[in-house]
């Protein structure tokens, strides 16, 4: 991207300061996530569990929270960046893996694959989820492009929400037809990070790493798209190729996250909007900030879910819905669904 296409310059010092603050908040939340749960633990138990000891119930509890915290951070970072990419690709302030139906597409694909084809391996789950997310993204964009005016933000949001409702009903229909797997699918459908293990996470790490790399590598080109298709083409960008590559990164992030956590909504909607208040619209800063803020939001939501429902807990997908739904209404009312 040429300098003429770059966003208006901002001083780097405030951004670096906010970056440090955000990283400190994430570290603090991660420490709280390890320490807080249904069972009280002390610093000695935490230190022992970090060294790999599980001699007591308290140490075993801490050992179970560590991978859960890591998974929440990874999932939040992936969904936060995916939301920022989707909003940049579509120039749609309402774009989000949940609102555009991408997460539900991955969910439906997994439900069908489990019920009708009997898939059970972690690798198969990931590939099925990615294909479902990708197919849904193409479908929603095609439907939102119909009619006069092309793929406007409002049409894309309506197409995505209609697709989400339809796919959610289809998931229920699949579960009703297979009572033997309905319980597991229903629990997974809520979206959560409970029961996380490092062995399960290993399978999704390559997909998440590739998605993050593609997203960060597309930052400059997303800045060009923000100027409009005609201007981006005039600056030498192949608009369709840029959109396809950046969307691939978002689909990998959404699909892999949904495969291991289930569909978690609103993280990709809330986080990019808040990060724009801190760093502006330059995707070279917005994407990494969205990843860090998304990780902090999901780890914090997981902690909140444990506190609010003690001695039980709320899945993180329920907590993010409570946070994100009012935010979505506020955007619709005050942002008037303008393009970015």
Automatic annotation (TrEMBL):
Stored InterPro entries = ABC_BtuC-like, ABC_transptr_permease_BtuC
Q: Give one Pfam family, short name only.
A: FecCD
User: So where does this one cross the membrane?
Assistant: 16-36, 98-119, 125-144, 156-177, 197-219, 240-265, 285-304, 316-335
Give the way it sits in the membrane. Answer: Multi-pass membrane protein
Instruction: Give the main location.
Output: membrane
Organism in which the protein naturally occurs: Paracoccus aerius
Question: What is the name listed in the Swiss-Prot or TrEMBL entry for this protein?
Answer: Iron ABC transporter permease
Give the matching PANTHER family: FE(3+) DICITRATE TRANSPORT SYSTEM PERMEASE PROTEIN FECC-RELATED, FERRIC ENTEROBACTIN TRANSPORT SYSTEM PERMEASE PROTEIN
Q: Could you tell me the keywords of this UniProt record?
A: Cell membrane, Membrane, Transmembrane, Transmembrane helix, Transport
Protein family: Belongs to the binding-protein-dependent transport system permease family. FecCD subfamily.
Compartment list: Cell membrane
């Amino acid at each position: 991207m040429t300098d003429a296409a770059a966003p208006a310059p901002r001083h780097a010092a405030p951004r670096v300061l906010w970056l440090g603050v955000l990283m400190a908040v994430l570290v603090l939340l991660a420490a709280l996530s390890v320490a807080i749960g249904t069972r009280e633990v002390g610093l000695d138990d935490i230190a022992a569990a970090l060294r790999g000891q599980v001699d007591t119930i308290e140490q075993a509890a801490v050992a179970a929270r560590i991978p859960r915290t890591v998974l929440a951070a990874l999932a939040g970072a992936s969904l936060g960046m995916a939301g920022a990419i989707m909003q940049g690709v579509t120039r749609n302030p309402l774009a989000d893996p949940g609102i555009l139906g991408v997460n539900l597409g991955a969910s439906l694909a997994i439900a069908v694959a489990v019920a009708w084809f009997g898939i059970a391996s972690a690798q198969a789950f990931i590939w099925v989820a990615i294909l479902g997310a990708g197919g849904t993204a193409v479908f929603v964009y095609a439907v939102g492009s119909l009619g006069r005016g092309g793929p406007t933000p409002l049409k894309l949001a309506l197409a995505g929400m209609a697709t989400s409702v339809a796919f959610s009903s289809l998931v229920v229909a699949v579960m009703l037809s297979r009572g033997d797997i309905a319980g597991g699918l229903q629990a997974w459908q809520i979206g959560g990070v409970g029961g996380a293990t490092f062995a399960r996470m290993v399978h999704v790490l390559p997909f998440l790493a590739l998605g993050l790399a593609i997203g960060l590598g597309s930052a400059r080109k997303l800045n060009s798209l923000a100027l409009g298709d005609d201007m981006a083409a005039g600056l030498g960008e192949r608009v369709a190729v840029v959109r396809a590559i950046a969307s691939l990164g978002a689909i990998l992030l959404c699909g892999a996250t949904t495969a291991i956590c289930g569909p978690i909504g609103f993280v990709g909607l809330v986080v990019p909007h808040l990060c724009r208040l801190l760093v502006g619209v330059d995707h070279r800063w917005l994407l990494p900030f969205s990843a860090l803020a998304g990780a902090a939001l999901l780890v914090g939501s997981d902690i909140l879910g444990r506190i609010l429902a003690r001695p039980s807990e709320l899945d993180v997908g329920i907590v993010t819905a409570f946070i994100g739904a009012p935010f979505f209404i506020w955007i619709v009312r005050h942002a008037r669904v303008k393009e970015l």
